[in-house]
Amino acid sequence: VSERLKNLRTTIQEINRYVPGKSIEEIAREYGHSPAEILKLGSNENQLGPSRFAVEAIRQAAGSVHLYPDVDAAPLKRALSEYTGLPEELIVASGGGMDGVLDTLMRMFVREGKDVILPTPTFSYYEISALANGGRPVFVPRGENFAINTDQIIRAADDASLIFLCSPNNPTGNQVSEKDLRGVLESVNALVFLDEAYVEFADKNFIHLVKEYDNLVVGRTFSKAFGLAGLRLGYAVMSEAIQRAYMKVATPFSISRVAEHAGIAALEDREHLKESIEMVRRGRTQLSKRLNLETYPTQASFILAETYPHLASEITTKLLSKGIIIRDCTSFRDAGKYLVRITVGREEQNERVIELLNNMV
Ligand SMILES: *Cc1c(COP(=O)(O)O)cnc(C)c1O
Question: If you take atom 11 of ligand 1, which residue's CA is the nearest one?
């Protein structure tokens, strides 16, 4: 780096960039497919598309984008209060998706050199965000069936400022148990961030625990079940004390007018939500029954499959040549080289993956 950039913090120079799922444009160019025939099952997007109500709300908001949005997104918070059953004083909404909430919390809680606990394998943005804020990631590998290792987490958390739990966990699909979650919350002084990005597809959620534990923040997103990944809208619920502090430091106007209106409309479209959940539940059964690969039980909108003795990278590359994008999990820390993650789609989409994959293994 040049002399004039010497103030760029060394920790940031050392961060490995987030590895996203491949994009349709990238694969079309690389393999000469037409974009329309590509099946994108690598980023857990909603395969039903967005709610029609949300699309209409986006059109209507378009004419007013010369105006700043509501400063605290109050109408959206009211809608979220209704959806979650929690008071508005415990809710924050954020542009930049849930990742936006996460960055703000990092700025609030992580000090230079303080530990951030990550049960691996898990969503890789936590590690990047921790490093960017001067934190020291401490990895605690998961145990059998990817359950978190509660005792080890508690022991490691002695000097930690933050603990990340993801439920259902990306990329493994399993949820944390209530016993483990309460065990961690009661034994540590660190903030516990529980990522519920996929919770609409799961049997249980832990949102109500924010009323019991002031060190818990539950993160949510409009990117998965609500089908609005392209809009970048997230929210979180937390104790009133954290919420008040959060509102002091959050970027003002972080939620665009368009995103706010679309979010409210999506929350109102219960039919779209129900269809999305039903599609995923049916698809999970279809994939786990029919794939000739060992799959793990999942509560999310994706399924994790074992590719051994074939390398995950080989399988995903072969599928790309057929126009199907799934996620090679090799870049997830502690995931090994034999796991792939497949987004659950509509029946005929799942069928296409099953047929091609079964021919390869
Ligand atoms: C998709 C995802 C998110 C990110 O959500 P955005 O709101 O799109 O930023 C967060 N956590 C996990 C585990 C995810 O898979």
Answer: 197
